[in-house]
Amino acid sequence: MIDGYGRKINYLRLSITDRCNLRCQYCMPEEGVEKLKHSDILSLEEIDEMVSAFVSLGINKIRVTGGEPLVRNGIVSLIEMIRRHPEIKDLALTTNGLLLKQMAKSLKEAGLDRVNVSLDSLKPEKYFRMTRGGSLETVLSGIEEAKRVGLTPIKLNVVIIGGFNDDEIVDFVRMTEDEAIDVRFIELMPIGEVAKWSIKNYLPNKVVLEKVPELIPVVSQDPASPAQYYKLPNGKGKVGLISPISCKFCTNCNRIRLTSEGKLKYCLHSDEEFDLKKALSDKLDLTEYIQQSILNKPLEHHIGKGDIVMRNMVQVGG
Ligand code: SAM
Ligand code: SF4
């Protein structure tokens, strides 16, 4: 599938729930979260039909996300369903890791290739505070289990927040020294909740290179990856910098998103959406509908230069 600017779209980020077992301060309000009605959320059968349409259009990489994807009933069957498409070369999932300890093995057996785990602090009390209740120990034991069953390579996603975890950058980078784990620093994006936060909380990713000057750029970079990769001189893992604000990667964008209520989004930073759930119930030709919608994908976003996305990541699908 090719968009209006000639970019090949082969990567689908599939959000399967707007629910979460945490309340990260930058992603969700503490209380008063408006949940979607059960009937508004895509059923497994609807997801199956949509995935088939996407695959027929050339999608060969899927990342399952949310909300927290592991709280969705039927997640293991869903992974099995997606795995039935031989065209899918990479099937991954992004999780906060809390339920990995008990679920990693069945997810691997269902055909999941690998996981990315979001972890913004290595200090139990800080982690608890930022996630409003999460247990660092539980996440770490989930990561160990994911490694044990082979949901690898594991990537850790760390959102850098000025005044909160920028003092832990060196500790996160050191994790890549002895372990084949990739740690990726992500710039905080002014989406939903955090759009009101102080400018001091927003740090450009170059602070990582300032704090750890011994990092060396990795020579062969994947042009479709949003991360710029570096390594410690003897590091087993890599350090990625994902800089959607300071150094955006729109020119090579190969991705689209489907929200848990079946809205197709061609850009994370745009509020424009196409209703695939309705298209399906109206018995429209889904592949035709998707192809037409993709032609509207903009050349680039203008977030960080005035544009604000109203919905939180948990609703959009991170
Ligand atoms: N619950 C899962 C998790 O936390 O990994 C998956 C969904 S979460 C919305 C996906 C990713 O979005 C997480 O890595 C989270 O840190 C990131 N995220 C949420 N809000 C963000 C924001 N405003 N700026 C940057 N990253 C954000
Ligand atoms: Fe939940 Fe993930 Fe959002 Fe945290 S970042 S509140 S774990 S969806």
Textual characterization of the structure:
The structure is a single chain. It is built from ten helices and twelve strands. α1 packs parallel to α2 (75-83) and α3 (100-110) runs parallel beside α5 (136-149). A hairpin with a 4-residue loop joins β10 (255-258) and β11. The mean pLDDT is 91. It is of the alpha/beta class. It has a twelve-stranded mixed β-sheet. 28% of the residues lie in helices and 17% in strands. It has one domain: Aldolase class I (TIM Barrel, Alpha-Beta Barrel), CATH 3.20.20.70. The protein has helices at 44-56, 75-83, 100-110, 124-131, 136-149, 169-178, 206-211, 276-281, 286-294, 313-316; strands at residues 11-15, 61-65, 90-95, 114-118, 155-160, 182-187, 216-217, 227-231, 239-242, 255-258, 263-265, 274-275. The structure holds S-adenosylmethionine and iron/sulfur cluster. The site of iron/sulfur cluster has 13 residues, from α10.
